Amino acid sequence: MLEDRQVSAVELANVFLARIERYRGLNAFLDVRPELTLQQARAADARRARGERGALLGMPIAHKDIFVTRGWASTAGSRMLEGYLSPFDATVVERLAQAGMVCLGKLNCDEFAMGSSNENSAFGNVLNPWDAAAVPGGSSGGSAAAVAARLAPVATATDTGGSIREPAAFTGITGIKPTYGRPSRWGMIAFASSLDTAGLLAASAQDCALVFNSMLGFDARDSTSVQLPEEDYTRALDIDLRGLRIGVPAQFFTQGLQPDVEAAVRAALEQIRQLGASLVEVELPNAPLGIPVYYVVAPAEASSNLSRFDGVRYGHRARTFDDLTDMIKKSRAEGFGPEPKRRILVGTYVLSHGYYDAYYLKASKVRRLIAEDFQRAFQACDVIAGPVTSSVAFNFGEKAADPVSMYLADLFTVPASLAGVPGLSVPCGFGDRGRPVGLQLIANHFDEARLLGVAHRYQLATDWHRRIPAGY
Amino acid sequence: MKAQWEAVIGLEAHVQLLTQSKIFSPAPNAFGAEPNAQASVIDLALPGVLPVLNRAAVECAIRFGCAVDARIAERSVFARKNYFYPDLPKGYQISQYELPVVQGGSVSCLVSPRPGEPYTKTVQLTRAHLEEDAGKSLHEAFRDQSGIDLNRAGTPLLEIVSEPDMRSSAEAVAYARALHALVVWLDICDGNMQEGSFRCDANVSVRPSGDARFGTRVEIKNLNSFRFLQQAIEHEIARQIELIEDGGQVVQETRLYDPNLDQTRSMRSKEDAMDYRYFPDPDLLPLQVSTDWIERVRASLPELPGAMRTRLTSQYGLGSYDAALLTSSRPLAHYFEAAARGAPDPKAVANWVNGEVSAALNAAGLSIERCPVSPAQLAALLSRVGDGTINQKIAKDVFAALWEAKAESVDAYIDAQGLRQISDAAAIEAIVDQVLAANGAMVAEFKSGKEKAFNALVGQAMKASRGKANPAQVTAILRRRLDA
Q: pTM of the prediction?
């Protein structure tokens, strides 16, 4: 509709800004500045008036608060950065702005992206639009709730161990984490640098493909960015599923997978088979080690990445202190919430002298085994499929008291993160209490286009992704 | 040092590399700007920033590695060294830990012990690795507060670690000087020690002479001049020996040298040594250095001081001490060679460069690059000494004139000032006769056996010729006349 100018970017922005205001109770947004949004929308309309074209020109988007932005505060969901204004935009934000996307604001998330339920945000829980008693998932809970409630057509998100796919599954929307190294990490507030990957939450795989075209690509400011030619991620949307081999790993159908989730996922696999793909059994023997490996590697990196928040140059500084050391200690004690503190402690421990080999080094080795599992599996199949989570969205407070049970929510998503391969979640039905279920699709490195193609064909044949929660 | 004790010393040198920009950010790498004016968002460690390795810094490391005949690692790894300090913006320093880029190698130096004969010492290197410098805390300028200047944060450093090969402060200083000269020679460091471009930490221990085991070592930090290095090591050796002889034990610790008090004081002991929690930096890929790159750098190296020393001794017949002095810097060596090409006697050129020229430069506080007397002028001057046109004494006057820009052409100045040496026997005889006639008392003294009076008469004759008479001829003629 933007293309044929039936609607202007300003009108579209106003529609979403009104919805954001109306559904403030979801607590999905942390910073909304309508005047800035409308300024960008007017600029997009002006570009279109000058004859510029582009699928994203004038299209609204909202950004997870892990991406730094010039106009909106960037807090990473932490008191530590309350009110922090970045002097520069993250590469992802910058590239999408250049494509003409209009920023609606910044989205709530678990503090420093640490969490699976969004209960770790310093700025309050985000509600799941499907059920106010249910968590929206995390850490990209704000992004997921915003897209599910149609407060934004698409939102950026980040995935370190499942932070895009799990909330996508919990809120019945499409979420994709591309290959590590495809999106730039410049301007992403770091949690675990070897895992952090920018991605998207949207209503459909097709939307994700369109936005990826502008969002991904090499960035000289990120040394882990992959230097590959720009791609058209929509090119495989009309993929023929006939002859495609879908690998089903046994390891994803054990370990407390709830019957309601299993039923929906099996039905989805059957549907994909009927669309022409073949189902093959594959093995990811080391995948169950993903959680212990992840909870060594990620906290280790986090403990170091979060050291810069010391109250010296920016961010929270304690009001009273005795000396410099005391200032750093108090500022950190006050600025960080319980989950970052827990992970800093764990990370500091596993890196400390005498423990490094037993923990960090061992975990790095097992991580390599998990990655090798995927390479072996992809010799027998083109795409791996399975559940995203073992259950539908749990209730607030249900796991908050027990960190380990919370960590197990990432059981099926962590292996792809550790291997750096792209993973996607598409809605595939509803389970207990009418809460959404997600189907996870995983492809080999740099095979996002095929991943999006399979998801798109599935979405052409189903309407789960069109369901909107009641009241929105 | 008492004979029954032997000192064991190893040095860690922190060399700031001469690159345009910092090691992990595009901010300029220069000294002396307003506080924090040269700190980019990366140096400030703002949320979301990432490091990108500056290849020029790697090239400096390769240059050094090739020069000291070390192994350049094809693959080396940047690690994070984690600790909190207000002037360390990220809360970790990016350094190299398990796999450094330069491994092994050696540096030779000429040790001049006092007392004792100079000798050559070869110090083995353990490694040299790349890392970033921290910022600076400024405690003085603020009341009850500290200032932080992050201009220095991210300055590329090459940390060069020696084996514990040195046995005296003289050896340590000789090695440090040779290393300093080498990194300046290679154009990878400006060598400015006042600005902190070259800083040393020393590891010092003592043991009974002949013992193969090492004693407990103490690390001394903050050694920013060769004099402090020497004093701190000597002080520390004496402290350790006294401690042990008094029945005490040396504790492994880090001590800070205070040049004002000529003392070291304890900074931290082994017990509260920090656990830096090193791990590979996930923001940076392992550093790959291709053989091709190494060979390109090797081919671009200038002639190295060691090779040049050898060449100067064989090509010009210089002594090893002169050759060592001349190769203390590349511009000085170039100056010598340029002058030696145009002069008849290279040894005379070496004597002049190491003597008259160096003394004049020191007195004026000038570097050889700014020497007012060009190598061609020096060569012309020494040619005129060589062919007997002027004598040494007049040569010094002409040098002074050249230095003060009162003269440009040596020959023109000699002619204009009438400085040619008088070698005409008749003219000298006339002068000598004049002097003998005018100094009857001195002649009488000489005749009564006072040989000293002879020298006084030579001096009178030289003075009468305004320094121009050939001194050898004056002496011969005077002797003949007096003996007659």
A: 0.91
